[in-house]
Amino acid sequence: MRVFITGASSGIGVALARHYAARGAILGLAARREAALQALVVELKTATCHLYPLDVTDAAALATAGADFIARAGVPDIVIANAGVSVGTLTEEAADLSAFRRVFDTNVMGMVHTFQPFVAAMRTAGRGRLVGIASVAGIRGLPGAGAYSASKAAAITYLESLRVELRGSGVKVVTLAPGYIATPMTEQNPYPMPFLMPVEQAASSMVAAIDRGARFAVVPWQMSLVARLLRILPRPLFDALAARAGRKPRGVPPAI
Q1: 242 FRET partner, CA 20 to 30 A, in 30, 40, 199, 211?
Q2: Known catalytic residue: 148?
Q3: Among residues 20, 148, 158, 180, which one is catalytic?
């Protein structure tokens, strides 16, 4: 098995790498923080890993990484676009414009950049999984999180488009929408997080969804009930409830 993962230096990316390494997979691990990638390789010990220190907003860097991974390991069975950033944003604050740009470039274009080098080869091979990490936050817009919610909504819709494009090719597109997962990204949230799930447990559920080729899966399963409710809430009721929601601190999106 050959698996390529972005955002592999922390959180969900590390947990997924551990799961696939335990299966004996050949891994392509991409992230900005080279030292963290090197530390992960040491932890994984016997796993065969190809490291790609890069920023997913750099399409050329990912194209080079994709070509190198295919040359070294072969066409991947699974490509996981996991890299993502989250930070509070307010449209009225001019200082937040750069944060909006960074969040969109990473969470949306970073996903496109991740898949593009592999799609043609996987289509030719007639197999594989393209996996995008979206979020329950992409189902409805949350206050103080305009950039994050909008980017994840765009990711969900993009993945749906890609799934239909590849219908019948043998390549499945899997959308994973995590709720609250215990990672460095959620550590900064200064509010209660219902159904907070340990990252290793979340990764196990995600791997199961990838194995079965799920079109769309929410992790943990309890958040799928929340997601369904969010979809059907009338706008006036949603507005009244969401206005009271906790807000993520504003600032600079972290490196991934």
Answers
A1: 199
A2: yes
A3: 148
